[in-house]
Amino acid sequence: MKILFLDQSGKTGGAELCLLDVAKPYRDRCLIGLLADGSFRELLEQQGIPVQVLTGQAIPVQKDSNLLKGLSSIGQLLPLIGRIAQLSRDYDVIYANTQKALVVGAIASLLANRPLVYHLHDIVSSDHFSTVNRTLIVSLANRFSSLVIANSHASADSFVAAGGNRDHVKVVYNGFDLKQYQHHADAAQMRQALSLGDRFVVGHFSRLSPWKGQHVLIEALTHCPDVTVLFVGDALFGEQDYVEQLHQQVEQMGISDRVRFLGFRSDIPQLMTMCDLVAHTSTAPEPFGRVIVEAMLCGTPIVAAAAGGVVELIENDKTGWLSPPGDALKLVDIIQQCQSQPEQATAIAHQAQQSASQRFNLETTNQQIAHLLQQVMSDRG
Ligand code: UDP
After folding, report:
1. Mean pLDDT of the region 45-65
2. Which fold has domain 3-175+361-379?
3. How much distance in Å is there from the Cα of 83 to the middle of ligand 1?
4. If you compute the radius of gyration of the chain from its CA atoms, what whole number of angstroms results?
């Protein structure tokens, strides 16, 4: 089967890393069309996956779009849609990986008479999308897609609650290449390189963005005097004000010596393995939370904000800890518990590692997706 994947982002976020893994088995018979240029294109090229940047123009559909903006942007999209329709004649299926990709992919699928699959990586709620965009997502998916692959039951349920057709949706969790997360014996070296000695280190792995809640962890840190925090990740979508605010918060609280901002990194498994605890602190429901599964696979204890897809990943007190979103004091309790009872934390992390290896194995999830795509093709006859 030949697949034309579409993704709106030039940046490497969770949806793009998932797409990279989904596309790998099709590398000799697929194309990833990007609606913007950036580091994700470079990553795909490094991995030998065919990629083309389809437009030099920014796509004028914003997460907070209103009807007027939406209507005025259709004209600007026409050349792009024409190009995708033309390209898709060489492929069996169009696979839209993001919302803007759905917009252009839906019309192209109609023009080129190709089935459309939409991989939903979002909670379709007012936390993340304007009313117009929620309506756009469900209307296009209902009308044009043969299949919606949701990355969690929480994402699937939000799609249905927004008016999406339940019969179109199948839940497939993100899969992970287990080898990448095993045996990072160089943790001690990594600690040395970062001059961390034997400090208790809490790692936070996420793009810097208000809803990812880095400020909640900084607040918690003021109550944990002997803990150091590493923030790994960058502001991918222009959240410079928030970055500034985080730096000010650290300074005002007088904890600059215990907080490091490492920026975007590609050595996530090594960094996670070196941490004593990974904290996830999103203040809005997380659609899936790749970083949570990655910490589990590394055998590092994880505490995560209990909302959205997260509660499908962690069993509280068995494979990690769940903390109410935005609750810095509960986070303090859990950090202190990990510090005072390291054996218990290690046992829980071990349990999590076993569970995650079984539930989020890339081979299995890619087989599920291949099977679903096959079904789409056979349903069309
Ligand atoms: N990530 C990365 N480098 C960084 C920070 C994050 O490669 O510096 C990766 C992280 O390992 C994870 C992904 O980015 O695989 C983020 O996915 P997640 O589902 O946690 O959040 P999203 O960005 O999709 O909201």
Report:
1. 80
2. Rossmann fold (3.40.50)
3. 30
4. 21
